[in-house]
């Protein structure tokens, strides 16, 4: 449960950052749209890196393994920073942001400037997630949860401080961005200190043969890339939605308003179900079939049945929260007005998109539970097709739904739901395929063991012949 607190914590942080923009009354909608575009593009780069948490959870059993994981993240962070700089200064960025999204010159310039400011964030985020995975392996989920809450508190505090500084007049975009950096710095520092204090001295320099030896960079990357591809498609989904919604409305003021609505509703809609994604860490952390769990001693035995019951309860709780928050009259509007700081007219425009978010918990739970099981088996490669199907379904919905009269933020969130359903369906098919192969393999092994035991019960032919000959001699 402490691990599950990370997602709601990050969502509260996002809402605090949005409030930091909305509090700037002049051009608040334009600022929300600019920051939303930059943030969603940045998450496309940081998303795959956050899945290195699962590499730390499954593969890092020694100091040498941890060094390899950290080096991978250093390289990935440097590559992400280069892309941020290119998009901010080159014609590529002008084409991606101004031309593709059909936004005006003012929004485009603000978006590219915000994207440049966020260039160092992917590296900090990656370092934090890598150490979070190692801590989760050793059952320090409370520390990971505390780090996430500290991140949010730091963001809220710095938004409040910076709103009273000269930045509100000179560069309002720096208010949420600097707050985001301070939160990430607090989280990364907490996790790294937690690793050195609790784990660094107790793990071996190298992994022994009972744990499969040292994990190679190739093994880490082959395990990570399908998960990274899935998360990259999840992160790129939001920029794709922003792109199609903006182009559908012709780059007008209505398009800017629609992107601003999406920016405001994403964190609020994500809040009741976002934490369900952390369910995928339960199987690798507790399942006894995972050899790396031999490092961690625990007195309580957690079975697959326990994990399934826990997953179902989490899904039921999330669905209940969604319907209470988004279908009870005036509740969602009050959240948007009180927390993000938008006016009532803008909040009313967010009601329908938020109600569509009520149906997200079911596909998210199915995907998270089955992904965790496949991670334990180290069969993540079968998940790759699900990311492709998600993008196909998403783009198809974004193209088809406008012909049915669906536009604006409703078009964006509805298409996201369709993409989630398509992805979860493919994950379920992949899990069934792996389950059938595992079952067939076990049946073959059982049959082979039965044949071996039957052979050992029958005396060798030569031994039987010797017995007969001895009897004949005695006679």
Write the SSE topology.
Layout (H helix, E strand, L loop, with lengths): L5 H17 L5 H23 L1 H7 L4 H27 L1 H11 L3 H13 L3 H17 L3 H22 L4 H4 L3 H25 L18 H32 L4 H18 L11 H5 L17 H24 L3 H10 L3 H6 L1 H6 L4 H16 L7 H17 L7 H50 L3 H14 L1
Family: Belongs to the ANKH family.
Keywords: Membrane, Transmembrane, Transmembrane helix, Transport
GO biological process, one term: phosphate ion transmembrane transport
Report on this model:
The protein is an all-alpha fold and 475 residues long. It has one domain (3-474). Helix content is 77%, strand content 0%. The protein contains 21 helices and no strands. It has helices spanning 6-22, 28-50, 52-58, 63-89, 91-101, 105-117, 121-137, 141-162, 167-170, 174-198, 217-248, 253-270, 282-286, 304-327, 331-340, 344-349, 351-356, 361-376, 384-400, 408-457, 461-474. α11 runs antiparallel to α20. The chain is globular, with a radius of gyration of 26 Å. The chain starts with 5 loop residues before the first helix and ends with a helix. 51% of the residues are buried. Residues 445-475 are annotated as: Disordered. This is ANKH inorganic pyrophosphate transport regulator. One of its GO terms (molecular function) is phosphate transmembrane transporter activity.
């Amino acid at each position: 449960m402490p691990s599950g607190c990370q997602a709601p914590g990050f969502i509260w942080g996002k809402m605090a950052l949005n409030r930091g923009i909305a509090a700037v009354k002049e051009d608040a909608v334009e600022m929300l749209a600019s920051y939303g575009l930059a943030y969603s593009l940045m998450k496309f780069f940081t998303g795959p890196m956050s899945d290195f948490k699962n590499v730390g959870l499954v593969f890092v059993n020694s100091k040498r393994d941890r060094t390899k994981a950290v080096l991978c993240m250093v390289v990935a962070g440097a590559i992400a920073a280069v892309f941020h700089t290119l998009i901010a200064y080159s014609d590529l960025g002008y084409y991606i942001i101004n031309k593709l999204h059909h936004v005006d010159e003012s929004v485009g310039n603000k978006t590219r400037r915000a994207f440049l400011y966020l260039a160092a964030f992917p590296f900090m985020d990656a370092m934090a997630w890598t150490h979070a995975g190692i801590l989760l392996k050793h059952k320090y989920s409370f520390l990971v949860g505390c780090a996430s809450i500290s991140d949010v508190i730091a963001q809220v505090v710095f938004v409040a401080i910076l709103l009273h500084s000269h930045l509100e007049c000179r560069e309002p975009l720096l208010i949420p961005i600097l707050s985001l950096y301070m939160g990430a710095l607090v989280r990364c520092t907490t996790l790294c200190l937690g690793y050195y204090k609790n784990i660094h001295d107790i793990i071996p320099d190298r992994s022994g043969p009972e744990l499969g030896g040292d994990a190679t960079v190739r093994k880490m990357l082959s395990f990570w890339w399908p998960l990274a591809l899935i998360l990259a498609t999840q992160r790129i989904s939001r920029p794709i939605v922003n792109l199609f919604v903006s182009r559908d409305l012709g780059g007008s003021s209505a398009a800017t308003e629609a992107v601003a609505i999406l920016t405001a509703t994403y964190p609020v809609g994500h809040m009741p179900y976002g934490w369900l994604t952390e369910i995928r860490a339960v199987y690798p952390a507790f399942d006894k079939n995972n050899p790396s769990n031999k490092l961690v001693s625990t007195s309580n035995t957690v079975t697959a049945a326990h994990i399934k019951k826990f997953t179902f309860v989490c899904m039921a709780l999330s669905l209940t929260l969604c319907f209470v928050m988004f279908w009870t009259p005036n509740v969602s509007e009050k959240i948007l007005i009180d927390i993000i700081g938008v006016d009532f007219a803008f909040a009313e425009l967010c009601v329908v998109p938020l109600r569509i978010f009520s149906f997200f918990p079911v596909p998210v739970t199915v995907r998270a539970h089955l992904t965790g099981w496949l991670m334990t088996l180290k069969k993540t490669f079968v998940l790759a097709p699900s990311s492709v199907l998600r993008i196909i379904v998403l783009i198809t919905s974004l193209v088809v739904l406008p012909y049915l009269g669906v536009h604006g933020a409703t078009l964006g969130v509805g298409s996201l739901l369709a993409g989630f359903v398509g992805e979860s369906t493919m994950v379920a098919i992949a899990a069934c395929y792996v389950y059938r192969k595992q079952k067939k393999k076990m049946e073959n092994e059982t049959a082979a063991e039965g044949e071996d035991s039957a052979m050992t019960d029958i005396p060798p032919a030569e031994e039987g012949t010797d017995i007969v000959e001895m009897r004949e001699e005695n006679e």
